[in-house]
């Protein structure tokens, strides 16, 4: 076949495949050419520039923001949701739906899935569709609140509900995240009950958690776990946020506090070894806390809103 004939045939195949939407099998039958030859020809058509495929990234307003976050912080995925409403509930709903879709895609039968607590994660569970039946195990990554917290946001509630949605197994925790005395915490940690949970923590393959900010001081959520007396200590220590009641500064460095030796929670270093460590958080006021978590590499997937993502990028330029 001379060059002109080859070029004419490639143009014909390109027209049939790209313009006429014909399958490779249909083209093969029409032209009397082996399907494998059609496949090689389509590859050559793209290589020679006969057909140029352009992805219109402008169709997704957030795609470029996701790519910037992934490159800047070495993330596996960034899921950025545009939000038109200023209402907190609306933001949590769209964020929860996006994260629920991610979980539906990645959870496998042999996974151990760890949860923290909070309104963001409650919305994720609410938005979960009924996925395939799974033998995954769902486990809390910290104890419960010592104060008053709406039961729908409690870690045990979330773990049980997630297991129900996936038709998996849930393991619950019956101790507070923060004990009044170090001795009480040490006694619990030495128990067989805790050892069983700790072994599951070592097997976590997917972790999903909220990111707290000291800007939450005075809110019902903050008071449920810490109370206002801890705030001054955290501020003096340059702390910007926490994950599972373990605090860090803007550089992502863990900072010891007066409650560190009284806390029952998965070690944040463990999160760095999970397949998916998914942080779910939003609001520009939380940007510093999210930046600290990203710099500490406690997450490899971030789910947040567009306005929060833009604030993170602006502050880390």
Structure description:
With 317 residues, this protein is of the alpha/beta class. It has 2 domains: 3-47, Homeodomain-like (Arc Repressor Mutant, subunit A, Orthogonal Bundle); 59-315, Rossmann fold (3-Layer(aba) Sandwich). Helices cover 45% and strands 13% of the residues. It contains 14 helices and 10 strands. The chain has helices at residues 3-19, 24-31, 35-47, 63-73, 88-106, 119-127, 155-166, 182-189, 192-202, 220-225, 231-236, 268-271, 287-295, 306-315; strands at 77-81, 112-115, 137-140, 169-170, 206-210, 212-213, 239-243, 246-249, 276-280, 301-305. The strands form 2 sheets. Strands 1-10-9-5-2-3-4 form a 7-stranded parallel sheet, sandwiched between helices. α13 links the parallel β9 and β10. The radius of gyration is 25 Å and the shape is elongated. It starts with a helix and ends with a helix. The model has no long low-confidence stretch (mean pLDDT 88).
């Amino acid at each position: 076949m001379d060059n002109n004939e080859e070029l004419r045939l490639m143009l014909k195949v390109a027209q049939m495949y790209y313009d006429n939407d014909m399958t490779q099998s249909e083209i093969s039958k029409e032209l009397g050419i082996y399907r494998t030859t059609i496949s090689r020809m389509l590859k050559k058509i793209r290589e020679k520039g006969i057909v140029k495929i352009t992805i219109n990234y402008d169709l997704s307003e957030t795609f470029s923001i996701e790519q910037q976050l992934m490159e800047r912080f070495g993330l596996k995925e960034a899921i950025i949701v545009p939000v038109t409403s200023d209402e907190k509930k609306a933001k949590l709903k769209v964020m929860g739906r996006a994260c629920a879709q991610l979980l539906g895609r990645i959870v496998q039968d042999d996974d151990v899935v760890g949860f923290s607590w909070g309104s963001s994660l409650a919305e994720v569970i609410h938005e979960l569709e009924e996925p395939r039946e799974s033998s995954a195990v769902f486990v809390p990554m910290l104890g419960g609140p010592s104060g008053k917290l709406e039961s729908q946001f409690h870690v045990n509630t979330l773990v049980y509900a997630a297991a129900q949605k996936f038709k998996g197994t849930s393991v619950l925790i019956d101790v507070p995240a923060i004990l009044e005395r170090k001795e009480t915490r040490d006694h619990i940690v030495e128990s067989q009950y805790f050892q069983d949970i700790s072994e599951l923590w070592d097997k976590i393959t997917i972790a999903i958690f909220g990111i707290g900010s000291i800007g939450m001081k005075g809110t019902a959520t903050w008071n449920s776990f810490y109370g206002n007396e801890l705030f001054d200590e955290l501020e003096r220590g340059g702390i910007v946020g926490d994950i599972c009641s373990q605090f860090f500064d803007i550089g992502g460095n863990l900072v010891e506090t007066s409650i560190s030796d009284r806390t029952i929670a998965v070690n944040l270093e463990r999160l760095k070894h999970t397949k998916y460590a998914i942080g779910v958080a939003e609001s520009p006021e939380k940007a510093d806390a999210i930046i600290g978590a990203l710099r500490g590499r406690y997450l490899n997937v971030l789910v947040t809103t567009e306005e929060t993502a833009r604030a993170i990028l602006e502050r880390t330029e």
